[in-house]
Design a protein that fits this description.
The complex is a heterodimer.
Chain A: H1 8-28, H2 30-33, H3 35-56, E1 58-59, E2 62-63, H4 64-94, H5 98-102, H6 108-137, H7 145-169, H8 175-189, H9 202-208, H10 212-225, H11 232-256
Chain B: E1 2-12, E2 18-28, E3 32-36, H1 43-50, E4 58-63, E5 66-67, H2 72-78, E6 79-82, H3 94-104, H4 109-122, H5 138-150, E7 156-160, H6 168-183, E8 187-191, H7 195-201, E9 204-209, E10 212-218, H8 219-223, E11 228-235, E12 248-254, E13 257-263, H9 268-277, E14 282-287, H10 291-304, H11 310-315, H12 317-323
Parallel strand pairs in B: 3-8, 3-9, 6-7, 7-8
Antiparallel strand pairs in B: 1-2, 1-4, 4-5, 9-10, 11-13, 11-14, 12-13
Helix pairs in contact in B: 3-4, 3-5, 4-5
Classes of the chains: A mainly alpha, B alpha/beta.
Chain lengths: 262, 325
C-alpha cells in the first residue's frame, strides 16, 4: 500500500464493511432486535391510544392517539440506536474481536462512523416499523418531510453516540443496561412522549426544558403534525450541539484507547 | 531498510509496573526472527505496541522506515498479527471473518472474497468456509488467525505463539506454510513456547527478560556457544557397570539407558567407536534437551538470578518447557 493508497476510497471500504457487518448483525437476529419494539409500541397504541386515549380527548390540539405517535416512534428510534451500538461494540470488546479493527489502518473516525451508522440504521428500521403500526390505528400525514427525516436521523445519531460511549466505559454486560434503564427510559418518558409540557406547573416545565429528549420529540412532532411545545430551530440547535459534543468525546476516547487499549 | 527498527521502547502500566525498559531491536527485511522470553518478560506488551493494541510510554517504532507515530495507518497496513488469544466473533462464518478483515484494510469486497478463498485454501479451511467460528476446533482457529492476518498481504507477519495447543500434524503443516511464506519475502517475527520451533524455523533471535533485550544474535551463533551436549542412548543389552570412556561423562539412567555428556572437541563417531570397543550396542539416541532451550534457560537464569534454572530443566526438562515463554 502506498502513501496515496491510504485514501478516502479505502476509508469508504472500511466504513462500508463495518456498516454492512452491523446491519447483518441486527437483521440476523431480528426477533431480538426489531420485533420487541414493534410489539411494545403496538401495545402502547392499543392501551394508551385506543382504550385510555379515547377518554383523554385531545392533547396539544391533537387527538391523544395522534399526539403520542411521534413520541412512540422516536422512543423506538432512541432505544434501538443506543442498544445496537452499546451491545455490538461491547461484545466486540468482551470477545476481543475489536482488535481486528484496532490493528487495521481504519482511522478512529471511520470506526466511530461505522458503528454509529449501524445504530442509526437499526433505529430508522424500527422507527419505520412503528410508523407502519401507527398507520393501522390512525391516519398519518407528514407536515414536513425534511424536518421529520432530519430530526429522526439526528436523534438516532445522538443516541448511537451515547451507546458508543457507554460501551467504551462498560466493563460488564450489566454496565450496558444501567444507562438505558436508569437514564434513557426516564428521559424518554419525561420527554413529552405522552403529554404536553403545558400541562405541567411552571417549575416542572422549566425542569423539563433541561431534558434533551423533549426537544427531539417536539421537533419530530412538528415534522409530522406541525405542532410543537418548543421552537423547532432551538430544538435542532440543541440536538446538533449534543451530537458535536458526544462525537468529539467519542473520538477523544478512541484516540486515548480508553477501555480498549492498555 | 530494516523491517522493524525499535529504539528505546518503554512501557509502564498504570500502577507503575514497567513492562519494557528501553528496548532497542532491529529486524532485517526477509528475516525469520524468534522473540523469546519467560512469562511476564514483556513479549506480549512488545508485540501489542507493534500492532497498535498497546499504547507505548516512550521510544519509537519504525516499520519499513515508517514511523508508527507519524504514519500509523501505513505502519498498520504493513503488519499482520496472529495473536496468542482467540479474538473472533464466534457467531460469524469462517469466510466472513476473513472478508471483513480485508474490508477493514480497505480492500473491496470482490477482491476480499478472492483473497479469502486463496488463503483459506492454502490453510485447508476452504471446506469449512461456512462454518460458524464457535464450531471450529482450536487448531482450525489457529490456522484461521493466520489466514486473517495474511488477507491484506502484510510485509511483516507477527505470530504470537501460533502453534500453542495444536497437534503435531497441524504444527508441522503450519511450519511448512510459514517457511514458504518467508521464502516468498514476508518478514516473520515469531514468539513460541516450543524452542524446537524457533530452532527449526528462525535465523535470528532475541531474548527478552524483565523488559530488556537479554540477547540478540543468530540462532547458529547462539548454538555454537554450547560447550557440551548431552545425549540419551537406548542400549541393546543390559549394562551393569559404567565403562570408562575418555573424554565422555557417562551416567546410568537405568540398566538399558545411558546418558552421555560430550564436549565440542569430541564427535559422535568417536563416541560410537569407544562404545563399540567396550561391546556396547546402541539402538537409538536423542538429545537430552533441546539445545536452544538449554541456552535459553542458562541465559535467563544467569541474567535474572530467579525463576527456572538450567539445573531445574535438567532434572525436569518437560516441566521447564511448559513454563518458558
Amino acid at each position: 500500500m502506498s502513501r496515496t493508497g491510504v485514501g478516502w476510497y479505502r476509508h469508504w471500504i472500511s466504513f462500508q464493511t463495518i456498516f454492512v457487518k452491523e446491519i447483518l448483525r441486527f437483521t440476523r437476529i431480528w426477533v431480538q432486535t426489531i420485533l420487541p419494539s414493534v410489539i411494545t409500541t403496538t401495545l402502547y397504541f392499543v392501551i394508551f391510544g385506543r382504550l385510555i386515549g379515547d377518554r383523554i380527548g385531545t392533547m396539544g390540539g391533537l387527538d391523544y392517539l395522534d399526539f403520542i405517535v411521534p413520541g412512540l416512534v422516536l422512543m423506538g428510534v432512541i432505544t434501538n440506536a443506543y442498544s445496537n451500538v452499546v451491545s455490538s461494540f461491547y461484545s466486540s470488546k468482551f470477545s476481543r474481536y475489536i482488535e481486528e479493527l484496532l490493528v487495521s489502518p481504519a482511522p478512529n473516525w471511520v470506526i466511530l462512523a461505522g458503528y454509529v451508522a449501524g445504530g442509526v440504521a437499526r433505529g430508522l428500521v424500527v422507527g419505520l416499523a412503528v410508523m407502519l403500526v401507527a398507520m393501522i390505528f390512525t391516519e398519518i400525514r407528514i407536515h414536513s418531510v425534511a424536518v421529520t427525516l432530519l430530526v429522526i436521523t439526528m436523534t438516532a445519531v445522538l443516541f448511537a453516540l451515547g451507546g458508543f460511549i457507554n460501551a467504551i466505559y462498560a466493563n460488564s454486560f450489566d454496565d450496558i443496561s444501567i444507562v438505558p434503564t436508569f437514564v434513557l427510559t426516564p428521559l424518554t418518558y419525561l420527554g413529552g412522549v405522552f403529554y404536553s409540557i403545558e400541562l405541567l406547573p411552571g417549575f416542572w416545565q422549566g425542569v423539563s426544558l433541561a431534558n434533551p429528549v423533549l426537544y427531539m420529540v417536539n421537533a419530530f412532532r412538528y415534522g409530522l403534525q406541525g405542532v410543537s411545545d418548543i421552537p423547532v430551530g432551538i430544538a435542532f440547535g440543541i440536538i446538533a450541539i449534543f451530537i458535536l459534543v458526544l462525537c468529539a468525546f467519542s473520538l477523544y476516547l478512541l484516540r486515548r484507547g480508553v477501555g480498549i487499549k492498555t | 531498510m530494516p523491517a522493524l527498527d525499535v529504539q528505546q521502547l518503554t512501557k509502564t502500566y498504570k500502577g507503575g509496573f514497567q513492562a519494557l525498559k528501553g528496548i532497542d531491536l532491529t529486524v532485517e527485511e526477509g528475516d525469520f526472527f524468534a522473540l523469546l522470553g519467560p512469562n511476564g518478560a514483556g513479549k506480549s506488551t512488545f508485540i501489542g505496541i507493534l500492532a497498535s493494541l498497546v499504547n507505548k510510554t516512550g521510544g519509537s517504532v519504525r516499520v519499513f522506515g515508517e514511523d508508527q507515530d507519524r504514519t500509523p495507518e501505513l505502519v498498520k497496513s504493513f503488519i499482520g498479527l496472529v495473536p496468542q488469544e482467540f479474538n473472533f466473533n464466534l457467531f460469524l462464518p469462517v469466510v466472513e471473518v476473513v472478508v471483513n478483515q480485508a474490508g477493514y484494510y480497505g480492500i473491496p469486497r470482490r477482491e476480499a472474497r478472492v483473497r479469502a478463498e486463496r488463503y483459506l485454501r492454502q490453510l485447508d479451511l476452504w471446506d469449512r468456509r461456512d462454518t460458524e467460528m464457535r464450531k471450529l476446533s482450536g487448531g482450525l482457529k489457529r490456522r484461521l488467525m493466520i489466514a486473517r492476518a495474511l488477507v491484506h498481504e502484510p510485509r511483516l507477519l507477527i505470530l504470537d505463539e501460533p502453534t500453542a495447543g495444536v497437534d503435531i500434524e497441524i504444527r508441522r503443516s503450519m511450519w511448512t506454510f510459514l517457511r514458504e511464506l518467508n521464502a516468498g519475502g514476508t518478514t516473520i517475527i515469531l514468539t513460541t513456547h516450543y524452542l524446537e520451533e524457533a530452532e527449526s524455523l528462525c535465523r535470528n533471535i532475541a531474548i527478552i527478560n524483565h523488559g530488556e533485550i537479554a540477547e540478540r544474535t543468530s540462532i547458529l551463533a547462539l548454538l555454537n556457544r554450547l560447550h557440551t551436549e548431552t545425549f540419551v542412548l537406548n542400549l541393546k543389552g543390559r549394562l551393569s557397570e559404567l565403562p570408562q570412556l575418555g573424554g565422555f561423562v557417562l551416567q546410568h539412567l537405568d540398566d538399558c539407558t545411558l546418558e552421555v555428556e560430550m564436549s565440542r572437541e569430541h564427535t559422535i563417531n568417536g563416541l560410537f567407536e569407544a562404545l563399540s570397543r567396550n561391546g556396547i550396542e546402541v539402538i537409538s539416541l536423542r538429545n537430552k534437551q533441546n539445545r536452544l532451550e538449554r541456552l535459553f534457560l542458562e541465559m535467563v537464569d544467569r541474567r535474572s538470578g530467579t525463576g527456572w534454572s538450567s539445573s531445574d530443566a535438567a532434572v525436569a526438562p518437560d516441566a521447564a518447557r511448559e513454563v518458558i515463554a
